[in-house]
Amino acid sequence: MITRESLEAMTSEEIAGLLAEVLERCHAATDAVNTAVASYFPAVNEQERRIKERKAALEKERGAVLSKIEGMRPALVKATISGNADALAEIQRTVKDLETQRATVETQIGMLDGPLPSCDDVYNAIQTALKEKEAIDEQTATDLETIKAFCEGKAQPWVELAKGASERPTAVSEFHLNRVRAHYSESRRR
Questions:
Q1: What is the per-residue pLDDT across 85-129, written as a single tens digit (0 to 9) for each?
Q2: By residue range, what is the domain housing residue 117?
């Protein structure tokens, strides 16, 4: 925390350096929030892409299993006509295994059809960065006001420093942040 007393002991160059540090800390916090916000939708898209890939692989596997089952038809007809009990028993075992495999694949496909889990880790990173930025913004505003008040009370060259301390923290993109919040809330309701 910057105090008037600590500023009294500094030169104008030292205060200019301090001002630059305060503003840089604020800009870095803003960048951290914007970076976290920008990572949300790519994470959601990656999640959706992986689900689609897995479902496509499962659909292919289901098709292969169904083809194998259908391919058993001629052998079943032949064994039935000939009355070959051993062949019928082997066909029944094979069909049972294939049907179990098909049911397993279809269950997985059904499970992947449901709503996707939200990207909690990315959303939580946004919230953490936002809380940190809010705390830094509060401290920055206090520090800037202290520097500004000190500089305004002094003669030149302090006037130029007061102008620099009039800057306010940069804003987080409310549009993108609101999109992320809306998507996150919607994904939690599914």
A1: 999 999 999 999 999 999 999 999 999 987 777 788 899 999 999
A2: 4-189
